[in-house]
Amino acid sequence: MPALFVCGVLSAAGEPGPTRSLSKEIRPIAPEPRVNRQIRISPIRLIGDEGEQLGVVAVDEALRIAEEKGFDLVEVAPTARPPVCKIMDYGKFKYDTAKKEREARKKQHNVQLKEIRYRPNIEDHDFDFKTNHVVEFLKEGNKVKVTVMFRGREMTHTEHGRAVLDRVSTVVGEQGIGNVESTPKLEGRNMSMIVAPKGKH
User: What is the pLDDT of residues 51-75, one digit of tens each?
Assistant: First the structure.
């Protein structure tokens, strides 16, 4: 039997608050539908292989019709009264469903956080080269962490790094492809900001 984890919440006074079971957050896997002789309840409401309503019939009669057509009888609404079953090619149905799910996953884009690093005294051609990468990442739908790295005495003039970040935000703003999601922050010897694609801010 799997262990049940319970997490508690402390109140402002430091006393333990109400607990909640994490097991409630686990989503159950949808069961496979009953097919052919697995369907025991009778009568059923039958739908033909072309979507036509065939009325309420005995399950044995529905199986006979499905077998004559060379198809399967699949329970599509088990909680209905009577249950709803459909005549179909179940193997082809499962194949088509899996194919659609794979195609849907391919179309989904997982937003990644890319990083482009600059120097506070960067030359114009290097700035343009790096900023073009920022633009490309944004066009691909990714967020970009734009970082300026300081060395030695450059830390005494962090405003130069801020000016570089401002130039980058101006470029992406003028092209209408991104917004500054988090304003520039100095962390150690690096100053960074996050730029997000337009519409994902």
Answer: 999 999 999 999 999 999 999 999 9
Number of Cβ within a 10 Å radius of residue 165: 21
Each residue's pLDDT tens digit, 125-140: 999 999 999 999 999 8
Q: Are 200 and 190 in contact (CB under 8 A)?
A: no
**CA–CA–CA angle 23, 78, 63 (5° rounding):** 140
Task: Sketch out the chain's domains with CATH numbers.
Answer: 36-105 (3.10.20.80), 113-197 (3.30.110.10)
DSSP state of 28: P
190 and 149 Cβ atoms separated by less than 8 Å: yes
Pair of tokens at residue 114: 């890319």
